[in-house]
Amino acid sequence: xxxxxxxxxxxxxxxxxxxxxxxxxxxxxxxxxxxxxxxxxxxxxxxxxxxxxxxxxxxxxxxxxxxxxxxxxxxxxxxxxxxxxxxxxxxxxxxxxxxxxxxxxxxxxxxxxxxxxxxxxxxxxxxxxxxxxxxxxxxxxxxxxxxxxxxxxxxxxxxxxxxxxxxxxxxxxxxxxxxxxxxxxxxxxxxxxxxxxxxxxxxxxxxxxxxxxxxxxxxxxxxxxxxxxxxxxxxxxxxxxxxxx
Length: 245
Known about the structure:
Elements: E1 2-7, E2 27-28, E3 32-33, H1 34-44, E4 49-54, H2 58-65, E5 74-79, E6 100-105, E7 108-110, H3 114-124, E8 128-138, E9 142-147, E10 150-156, E11 159-172, H4 187-196, E12 202-206, E13 210-212, H5 216-233
């Protein structure tokens, strides 16, 4: 099983933490880099090969991960000479990828069943399978619906429920075969393009733990709760390591 981890972003929203470290290497729980947690998870559930897409401070990621052997993985790299967004880096390495593979962002902490996602994708026939998570949003205002200048309905402080993308996907090589190498292309563009073509992605629902570490408050939350979720995120017997400072 093969996974591609998108680890090339500049982490602008997470500054100042990412001023000297790439976002996947910021420490969680004062012991592990985000990327280390992800790599250990993938190895524990049977993945053997990982491709890291790097750009911003990519040399630090190479130095930290190396060939992946200390994680029980074989790791190779694709380095962008310019930003290619969240799907574009895949176009230049299609020949190195199997028919179906996992793609994920390098800043996600989750207990998602990666094997379940990839296996479901393989058997679904869908061009793309998106791991989704249920989020609840409380609106602190009275919400109006209008028709022209007339109010047609009113809801006081509604609570809305959404399924959101977790930043982890099952993808098929055939799905990206049509796109030219070197084209900057985002996940959002891929989804919209597939919908326009009448090839809808599938959803793989997860109701466990998930945190996208995109903002300082998300990073602070990850550190606050790490002791409580460590057992769910890391394989049994994972040693304490402090290697990100």
